[in-house]
Design goal:
By secondary structure, the protein is mostly helical. It is built from 15 helices and no strands.
Amino acid sequence: MTAVSQVMERARSLRAEGRLAEALEALTGAEEFHAGLCAARGSVEFALGLYSDAALSLSAVAITRPDDVRAHFNLALCLERAQRWDAAAGTFERVLQLDPAHAEARLALGACQLKMNRPQEALAHFEQVRGVQALFGKAVALQLLGRLREAARAYEEVLTLEPDSEEALANWIALSVDAGDLERAGQLSARLRTLSPHSKVALRGLATSALEQGDYDAAMTNCGRLLDLAPECLEAWHNLRIATEQAQFGAAGPAFAVHLGGTL
């Protein structure tokens, strides 16, 4: 058995026992360069959450194996986890050059492009892949492009396939608020709160919808619940003040503009 084989076997044994740090130490201590050692080291580093280190290890593998789809895909995953979106996107593109039918790489490339605020490019990739993940990515891209009606239909399709998707509901709520459809925002927020009683997005949507519709008691209740979870939320304090004033003094309708900006 060669020295490299001994190191690899030792590392495999340690990893099987859950001793990842020791496995990494064994692989790092090897003096000889070997693509297999680099691949094994990158795999352990990835498992330990050392994504930048894993990318360095796996880049050596990709260089020595320029036509290896798996080597480039694994490197791209490390770069993506390290939030190096541009480098990850370039590597996913290399994977697609080698294997145009690689659906996972196309999905991941679209996700990287969304992170880099390139929704038009992302949309083109999501439309080439089937499945709920691609449909969700398409919805997000359309929303970022301001194509709100198309985005709403895409989120509706996502929720038909995955009725409990909290992320799709949250995004559709934000979209409905942006579109001024506060009735829809309220309906979706109630649905989200059923799934997640402590969802700040749901409580915000319920409070905003209730305030716009003149249901000040409901607005105060949901603003209060939101402030219990996020006492620093200026929007909730603002809307609570409006709802309280309107409930106390009475009015035919909201006397102040509902504040929809800010963050939680």
